[in-house]
Amino acid sequence: MAEVIKCSEEKAYAKAAQFLEDGHVIAVPTDTIYGLACSANCPQAIKKLYAIKGRDSAKPVAICVTYIEDVRKWGNAEHLSDDLLHTLLPGPVTVVLEKTRHLDNPFLNPKTIKIGIRIPQNLFINKVTKIFDKPIALTSANFSNEPSTLSVKEFEHLYGHLGAVFDGGVLSEGLERNRTGSTVVDLSNIGTYTIIRKGISYDKIVTVLEDNGLRSIE
């Protein structure tokens, strides 16, 4: 059974980074919902993540990073301005781009050349990514097709499969409408965007994209 560690505990973020380094899957808070996280470039960890979720490997997972420079390292964002990326991130948005050669795990999204990339606006996970200094695969902390979770008690049935659970309290003010998680937008094509999932801050994100001259492709 996974140990539950308060995010406020001293050096909790360093412990989380060590669990990731050791190939474990852990549960972490984000700025939207709780996520399951593991090292994105570790094949065994990714396979474990999919097994825990009961998820079809054809369904992609996103990665979590620290800086805009990381977004550009792991995703092909040459056609996107720094101003646009800094306006969108950090925050409740997942930007979908084509993978770069640096993201070379054959088990990470094997059915697509694209990757979703997040920089959450959450101090704990941001500290973890900074210490770990490698991309972290991130998907919602639930079984596939279950509702996403806003507190650690909502996914207690997963504890037996996890290295540790990091408790950041109730997320998204406990609001049901926020279980949708981040807004997912495909920015892989020059000059256009495609909304894959309408999540938190959807209207604001669309306004930012259109103010930057991008047009919607439905």
Q: What's the pLDDT, averaged over the residues?
A: 95
Give the H and E element order: EHEEHEHHEEHEEEEHE
CATH level-1 class: Alpha Beta
CATH topology: DHBP synthase
Q: Percent of residues in beta strands?
A: 15-25%
List segments where confidence is low: pLDDT < 50 over at least 5 consecutive residues.
none
The CA-CA distance between the termini, in Å, is 44 Å
Structural class: alpha/beta
Shape: globular
Number of structural domains: 1
Tell me roughly what share of residues is in helical segments. 25-40%
Q: Order of strands side by side in the largest beta sheet?
A: 1-8-2-3-7-4-6-5-9-10-11
Task: Describe the fold and architecture.
Helix 6 links the parallel strand 10 and strand 11 (215-216). The protein is built from six helices and eleven strands. It has one domain: DHBP synthase (Alpha-Beta Complex), CATH 3.90.870. With 218 residues, it is of the alpha/beta class. The chain has helices at residues 12-21, 43-53, 68-74, 82-88, 123-132, 202-211, and strands spanning 3-6, 26-29, 34-39, 62-64, 93-98, 114-118, 136-140, 164-167, 183-186, 192-197, 215-216. It starts with a strand and ends with a strand. It has an eleven-stranded mixed beta sheet with strand order 1-8-2-3-7-4-6-5-9-10-11, with helices on both faces. 25% of the residues lie in helices and 22% in strands.
